[in-house]
Fold this protein.
Amino acid sequence: MSAVLTALTPVVFLIAIAAVLHRTKFLPEATWRGMERSTYYVFFPAFLFQSLAQADFRGFHVWPLAAALLSAIAVMACILALVPRFIRLDGQAYSSAYLGAIRWNSFVAIVLLKQLYGRTGITLAAVAFVAIIPVVNTLSVYVLSRHAGADRSFSLAIKAMARNPLILACLAGALWQLAGLPVPSVIGTTLTLLGRTALVLGLFTVGAALSFSHLRARPALLLLVGTLKLLVMPVLMASFCVLYNVQGPARTVAVVAGAVPTATNAYILTRQLGGDSVLMANLISVMTVAALFTMPLAIWLLG
């Protein structure tokens, strides 16, 4: 437990610093948006490419880990499909709740896993990226298109995946690694510097996205989605790890993937495709703060 708290403390501090800087308007809003965009399209893809291109998967439960991750997501998708039968929600609110429960904050996950396991954590986290990102993006776009009234076809999901910089970086890194190609030292050093920047700026974008201006709206729904994402999802991840015999750091990676709050870019997605963006902002903020308390327990009990 102490190791988890030690690893999580720098994550909390960086998020808090960014939240204070954003709230005090130390930097103009355009700077934060540029920081978010550059992290998503440049720094983080560079980090993922290097992690996969130089990864050594020998001795890791790669396929069982991927199976556990995808199985947990499939069960959560089924649970969320049943929600409208028990709770009356309009399409916009339901789609935002769906994204809140099924998406994951990869920035928080990667920093925490690096703190816990170093290069091993990064390597296994890259496996999680390859398994999770295409699936959750497809589900997110599909649900928004069907329930939020957005004038979009399902083909948008395929197009979004084909342009997703994180997916492209993972695929490029995996192909590079499978080809057995070395990464030139100059390129490797450049990617390392970009990757270090990604870890800091990624958490800064999380802190800057915190907003508690509409917490009184839909408190029951906030509680339901938060419970599904922060408590039920890590239990599902751990359960399937037991089923597929995933052990050691790989199991912790799965639990962390389930225990982290929802992704901050879910707000951008809901705003673009017609979801309830105010509800989404509240979900992101509430879960980010709550996860600081639930993540250590999930990792300690299930990891």
